[in-house]
Design brief:
Elements: H1 3-10, H2 21-24, H3 26-30, E1 38-39, H4 51-63, H5 73-87, E2 96-99, H6 102-113, E3 119-124, H7 128-136, E4 140-145, E5 147-149, E6 152-154, H8 157-160, E7 168-174, H9 186-198, E8 202-206, H10 222-225, E9 233-237, H11 240-243, E10 251-254, H12 258-271, H13 277-286, H14 289-314, E11 320-321, E12 329-333, H15 341-351, E13 354-355, E14 357-358, E15 369-373, H16 378-391
Parallel strand pairs: 1-13, 3-4, 3-7, 7-8, 8-9
Antiparallel strand pairs: 2-10, 5-6, 9-10, 11-12, 12-15, 14-15
Helix pairs in contact: 4-13, 5-13, 6-7, 6-12, 14-16
């Protein structure tokens, strides 16, 4: 690994007072003061993006004119190159639609292929924004709870049939899974594909975390696991999580099937959606050999944070972190403490002064959990672990 990159990840960058939601909103939302608190909630990283991304923005600044973007061929080619070299996936450049991030992409999918009053399937607990946009669109959320097997999540597709009403039109998969950190196997993805055929569901596979996979695990794009469901499959990817450029609000909805593609393109046109030039330049620069080398260094660093955090958390009686196969989000179960959620949450936020995501916001199955973002300099992760040990010292 590049020692200079390691030094970059170790740098502590003060984000307070920069309109950063993660740091500047945590006191209002969680009662954790920015002065002395640790922000481990919002899923962005405490690291600068690779130099190639910064250089792309600097080139825009040096040019000094921020007009309309034209000819996105290089941008599309960069996406195709990345998916082929990093994931073994051949993407048709004409299948790529650019949304304002993948929450927007999810909302567009719901808008295109479902009607008000119809239901969308979620495998919970799962990323909370899915349910938010589904409900805001006047659709129903159908929660199919994941099953805990040997400390990790699995989909019990045989049991889910009894929970279906026939009103469901779409399923959204989070792959790799947020917040559980699962990398779904080929067998699991194929079984899900069969489930979607059986229940006549459009499947939207949100794969935003697909580059952030721990050593020893490999992500498989849904389209490669089950190519036979291309006529009901929508893929979603983005540079934003991988390269820590979420503020660029850019994501890709990749639609292999021509009929689905036409419907989605029509909704995009009807809503007047087009990307901003900053995001296009940043994504094009990120999906490059230099960006790839940076991601390799990043995942090695995150793996070190994972090992440190897991070791420390699991040493506290009653706490158990789910084995992290992908993402930088540690899903910690406090059920073993015997405490009500209000008590263990107060210990984390008031005593340890760490702002975290509350498990119930992720849906059924999240009640005893908190989600910790460990994409931070190692010293910050270590400090957070020290504070947790102190906050639960009476259990030890």
């Amino acid at each position: 690994r590049n020692p200079e990159t390691r030094m970059t990840f170790d740098e502590i960058i003060d984000r307070r007072g920069t309109h950063c939601v993660k740091w500047d909103m945590m006191e209002r939302l969680y009662g954790v003061p920015a002065d002395g608190g640790i922000a481990m909630w919002v899923a962005d990283m405490e690291f600068r993006p690779p130099a190639c991304v910064t250089a792309a923005v600097q080139a825009m600044v040096d040019h000094g004119i921020y007009g309309y973007f034209g000819d996105d061929a290089r941008y599309r080619a960069a996406i195709c190159w990345w998916m082929k070299t990093r994931h073994g996936w051949d993407v048709d450049p004409d299948a790529i639609f650019t949304s304002h991030g993948l929450v927007n992409g999810t909302a567009l999918c719901v808008d295109t292929w479902t009607e008000p009053g119809e239901a969308v399937v979620l495998f919970t607990p799962v990323y909370h924004a899915f349910a938010r946009v589904i409900r805001a669109a006047g659709r129903e959320v159908r929660e199919l709870p994941l099953t805990m097997v040997d400390g990790r999540y699995e989909m019990d597709l045989d049991a889910y049939g009894a929970l279906m009403t026939g009103n469901e039109r779409m399923a959204i998969l989070c792959s790799p899974h947020n917040p559980g950190g699962r990398v779904w196997s080929r067998e699991e993805l194929r079984a899900l594909a069969d489930f979607c055929v059986r229940h006549d569901l459009i499947l939207v596979s949100d794969e935003i975390h697909h580059d952030l996979v721990m050593p020893g695990h490999r992500h498989l794009p849904m389209t490669l696991a089950a190519p036979e469901i291309a006529d009901r499959l929508v893929m979603m990817t983005a540079t934003t999580k991988t390269f820590n450029i979420a503020g660029s609000h850019i994501g890709n909805v990749i639609v292999p099937d021509p009929a689905l593609r036409a419907a989605f393109g029509q909704r995009m046109a009807a809503l007047g959606i087009s990307p901003n030039s900053f995001g296009l330049f940043m994504a094009t620069a990120a999906y490059s050999p230099e960006g790839a080398a940076w991601v390799d260094d990043l995942t090695a660093y995150l793996d070190g944070n994972r090992r440190l955090f897991d070791d420390r958390v699991n040493a506290i009686p009653g706490l158990r972190s789910m084995p992290l196969e992908a993402t930088y989000l540690s899903w910690v179960d406090f059920a073993g403490t015997g405490m009500a959620s209000a008590e263990f949450t107060a210990r984390v936020e008031k005593d340890a002064r760490i702002a975290v995501n509350h498990g119930p916001t992720f849906g059924l199955g999240g009640e005893s959990f908190l989600r910790f973002n460990i994409a931070a300099p190692r010293a910050v992760v270590e400090e957070a672990a020290d504070r947790l040990a102190a906050a639960f010292a009476d259990l030890q």
